[in-house]
Structure formats: structure tokens, C-alpha cells
Amino acid sequence: MNLQLLFIAVVLLATPLVWYLPKAIQGSVMLIATLGVLLYIAPLSVCLMLVVAVLQWLIWKQQQFRLNKFGLISTVLLPLLPLVTYKIGYETAHWLLPLGLSYYAFRQIHVAFECYKGQAAPTLKEYLQYLLFLPVMLIGPIHRLPEFQRSLRRNKWQPAFFSEGMERILYGLVKINFFGNYLFTSKAADWLQHMHPPLLKIYLQMMAFTGNAYMQFAGFSDLAIGAALLWGIRIIENFNYPFLATNMQEFWQRWHISLSSWCRDYVFQPILAASRNRWAALALSMLVLALWHEISARYILWGLFHASLVLLTVRLRKAAPSVSRFINQNPTGKWLGRLWVLHLFAISCLFIGAVNWSTYSFTQLFK
Q: Which of 87, 91, 112, 208 could form a disulfide with 295 if both were Cys (CB 3.0 to 4.6 A apart)?
């Protein structure tokens, strides 16, 4: 069964229980629903996830949720070990699936840092309810513990949330299946199969890949946000019309917002504080963001390319303020900036497989 449909079906089935059972056990109902789905799909995977989470919490509790550096490092490494093992290509059996492992691990690291800063002290039940929140298990976003706790405490039935949630789920299914899978993947492949000249075909393949990437990511975020709203929880928006950005710095404030803000808070700012080198912090942040997707040379190049674009954006703003004002304030300049951002991101997709170069020879490109 399609996992996205399975998750949505379980959310819908559990929704009456969430609202008709006493408020005090709403979070437990959500947790049980998640565990039921995950145990059905990959029981040993869930066991691994739970063991890591419990070990983290025991370390935090032993240190009274005021972590020393050893406590921080150990509870950051615990979720990183299975994540890196999977990312470097370890072949898992069918019963050990990476169920949203990247998102799960980064949520765990988020809580470790918050405990280190003395800003979080969850009970084990609260921690597991946060980690195992079904709407975000597959593909994020990386919501934050304090906001989740506040939402759960204040949770009450709101018809507007339910209707908005159903609407967002519909938007997500349309983005994923109609625009992403059908138009940008299936139909685009048919349209481009015999297209000439090759350079035009490569350009359109690159743009189709970009469109599909956006529709898939944004669509799954819509599903997560919509499903969470059915349970009365509002989680972070993950995309804010990124291709309306007029420069690459703004783009990364609009694209995959939960991951970008995570890298800002837990990579960029600590490295900046330690090194006083803004550009090293930026490069390492983008490198972590890239390796989060996949540990490979192509994603390292992709991340460094984007770090360079953000750096050039900042330098251009200082070196040519009139150009920056034209792009950000003039209507024509804004559209030129948006086209520039769209094409820069599309070009970056060439690093990560937008075009299968093995099907072309150098001489074919110029026929």
C-alpha cells in the first residue's frame, strides 16, 4: 500500500478518538496510532528508534536536563550513528526501513541542544509523543519541541482546523501525484523523448526535474501540515513560495524552511560563535544541509555551489547596492531576480541527477 495513503488513512481513522476521548490522553492516542502504523511496517526499525530515544532521555535525566559537553556529544551521536550508517550505503533488510530517519534524527538532535541550553526538560512520554508524531514521520517537516508541547497543551476542537487540514491534504495529493508524478515526470519524459536539439532537451529536463522536486517536497509538507491540523496541531510551514525569492539568500529562507532554520540554529550559529568566521559557518551549514539529503560527492558539490551563491548574494548587496535595490524594489527587477533564482536552482540540480549525461556525447550536444 502507498505509504502516504496509509498514513493519511490512519490519521483520519484516529481523528475521532483524538477528539472524543478525554483531553488528558490525546497525546497518548496520537502516540499509539503512530506506533501501530510503524510496528506494522517495520517493527525492528521502530525498536531501534525507541532504544535510541530512551537512551538519550536517560542521559538527559541523569544530568538533570542541564547537559555538560559529554552529555551533548553523546546524545547527538546516538541518533547520528544509524543515520550515517544508512546514508553511506549500508543495505538494510526489508524489516529495517529508514522511516523518515533523517527527520527523526534531526528532531532528536534539536532536543539535545535545547536540553544543553537548559530550555527543554521533557518527560519520556512527552519526548516520545514529540518524536513519534505520525503526520511528520515520513518526510518532515522538522517541527520543534516547545511549539509542539504548547500546541498539545492548548489543543481543542476547532472546525476551522479540520477543514483547513482536509484542504491541505488535497493540495498535497494534487502536487505530488498530478503535478509531480504525472506532469513533471511521466508526461515530461514522453514529451522530451525525441526532442531536438539536445541542448533544449537538457534545459527542459533540468526544469522538469526542478518542478518535480518542488512539487514532491511541498506536497508532502502539505500532507504533514494537513494531517497535523486534523489532530488540532499546527506545525511549521516548510515552503513559502521559494521561486518568488529574488536572491539565493532569500530562497533559502523560503525553501525547506524547517531544515534551513535547523542548520542555522545548530550548525551556523555554533560554528560562527566558535570561529568568528561567517563564511566558514555558511559553507559548513550548507554542507550539512546537503549531506542530510545524501552522503555523496554530488551532494557535496551541490551544497558548496549553494554556499557560493549565498556568499555572492551577500557580497553583491554590499558591492553594488543600486543593483540590489533594483532587484528587490523595482517590479521588473523583481521578476528578473526570480528568473535568476529559478535558473540557478535548476542548474544546481544538474549536480544531483537532473540529466542523465551518459545518454549524450559531447558532439551530440551541439548538433
A: 87
